Amino acid sequence: MSGEYEVISYEQISDLNVFLVRMHERGPHLHQDMEIGLVLDGHVVLETGGMRRNLRCGDIYLVNPLEAHRFASVENEDGILLIVQISAQLVECAFSGAKNIRYACDAALRTALSAAPDQYARLSELLTELGAVFFGRRPNYEFACLSCVGQIYYLLNTNLPWTFLDTAEGLPHRERADRMLSILDYIENNYRRKLLLGEIARREHLSLTYLSHLFKDMLGMSFQKYLRQKRFAHACRLMEGTEQSVLEVSLSCGFSDVRYLTKLFREEHGCTPGAYRQKKRISFRRRPASPARSEKKISPADGLRMLSAFRAQQAKPTRRTMSRIRFGAALTCGAEQYVVHDAL
């Protein structure tokens, strides 16, 4: 993906996308669809609205349309996610104005549904059922998918606070999203050199004040923080995958001060860049032969197997440790076939 505004493609059913992900890292991005995901295994951090949420096995998250969000792994533990992306057009004929629904709650739904644990469990069941039906592709499976989506919307609208986005705000919001896409594309192509907010403001014919607020409103962070994250993520990849010195990495990523880069590594990973490189290489030797570093399609059979393992784990809480081991084995077996949306 060249930019951070994701254009979702629907391979099976119009306006519905269901896929499995081994999430290592994904920078701030936004798209028009509502996204709801379930952590099947591992640990991942979700950042949205300037807040960080730690998501573990069994946790569900929700991201509104055009809401910027970012994923990051924790240490060497990636997260296995079942992700459902739903275009409002899928339900608009039944619920007029669905495209303007915005859920006003914490993105981590375990907190938002803390008063209704049975509904949280039901939502988890619906997501895994939708995944199984979507991957199974049995005759007339499309109707079963629509049934699951309808029940998901009913559960969300019944149990979560939500509002309608004012119609007058809808178009400006999309226009701002398009503007942000242009800006992020420019940063993507230029972050390795000295880059100032003023340069972007002049390019976009915007004032510094407006552009600064646009970053805060759309991404939940300042321009400087976003640029620093972009550069630091690149620095981490170079430390992992090359033999470049810390100075060379620093200059390649747009950092003019090696000491500042070293400080970032200590803050983010608790070690020096060199120690980070060594730790990552030890970790890679312990991982399956095909580490989570590329994007690969998952076969329907693999998707069904992973969901089956998760359901077995959830059905036997007293044997969770043993079930988790079996699930890990299922992930390791045939790892070449597993999807890895490792959007770096």
Task: Write structural notes for this entry.
- The protein is globular.
- With 344 residues, it is of the alpha+beta class.
- The longest helix has 24 residues, at 167-190.
- The strands form two sheets. Strands 1, 2, 3, 4, 5, 6 and 7 form a seven-stranded antiparallel beta sheet that branches.
- Mean pLDDT is 82; it is low at 285-296, 319-326 and 331-344.
- Helix 11 runs antiparallel to helix 12 (320-332).
- It contains twelve helices and nine strands.
- Strand 3 and strand 4 form a beta hairpin.
Approximately what portion of the residues adopt beta-strand conformation? 15-25%
- Classify the secondary structure makeup into a structural class: alpha+beta
State the end-to-end distance: 9 Å
What is the C-alpha radius of gyration, as a whole number of Å?
21 Å
Count of alpha/pi helices: 12
The shape is globular
The ordered H/E elements are EEEEEEEEHHHEHHHHHHHHH
Tally of extended strands? 9
Fraction of residues in helices?
Answer: 40-55%
**What integer is the average pLDDT?**
82
Largest sheet: 7 strands, antiparallel
Unreliable stretches, pLDDT < 50, 5 or more residues? 285-296, 319-326, 331-344
